[in-house]
# Entry
Amino acid sequence: MITQFLHQLIDPVLDFIYPPVCPVCGEMMETYVPVCHGCQLLMKNQINIRHHQSGDFNHLDGPFFLNDVITFWQYSPKIETCIHLVKYQSRKKLGDFIVRMLNESIQSLHLPYPDTIMPVPLHPRRFRERGYNQSQIYAGAISRITGIELNNRLLKRIRYTQTQTRLSAEARQANVRDAFTIKRFSHMQNRAVWLIDDVITSGATINSCAKACRDAGASSVIGIGLSRPQLYDPAISP
Ligand SMILES: [Zn+2]
# Structure
């Protein structure tokens, strides 16, 4: 209560001295919002729901373990900036804001709600280095909006893997093969799962997570990512 009162008192003064700036386009804003009105409009207009079927992941070796993979944006400079701000600068409020922006699109899918939502996990060592897991920010926000149970602990990354950014599809797949496991199989039996990640590129990571869920008895696994590059060409995409 006192904190709220102090904020009401101090924020206008701070806004006057340091006017809030949109972290995406750098424009000054009148009040503090995670991104300016113009960027919000553009981001909303760029929403493009896509279902990526197994055929879109033909470059992966072996079975595909996901029932569906859904993304909401193709990569654009604004979306990339937002995703990087959440990933590397811990902008949790921005992550929550992005999910609120996507809520209408999520509801428009008319997907049956799963039993549980799980973020693609970081290895504990990477989690300590970064201090948070950006996918957990999005998964937490989806859980709060939908009321679906969030489980941050069941799916574990058991191998510390190098960053995928500059790897080919084959190397990505080798990098994350058997990198994930379910801690308690009994908690996954016959459960429907949504796996949440920020960017889905080759699909190797989310497929490896889905395999761990399926091995532990999950009844269905749907991958939900914020963004996927428009044309994923394993030969040229990073
Ligand atoms: Zn802006």
Notes: The mean pLDDT is 89. The longest strand covers residues 192-199. Residues 22, 24-25, 27, 35-36, 38-39 surround zinc ion (CB under 6 Å). The CA atoms of residues 22 and 35 lie 5 Å apart.
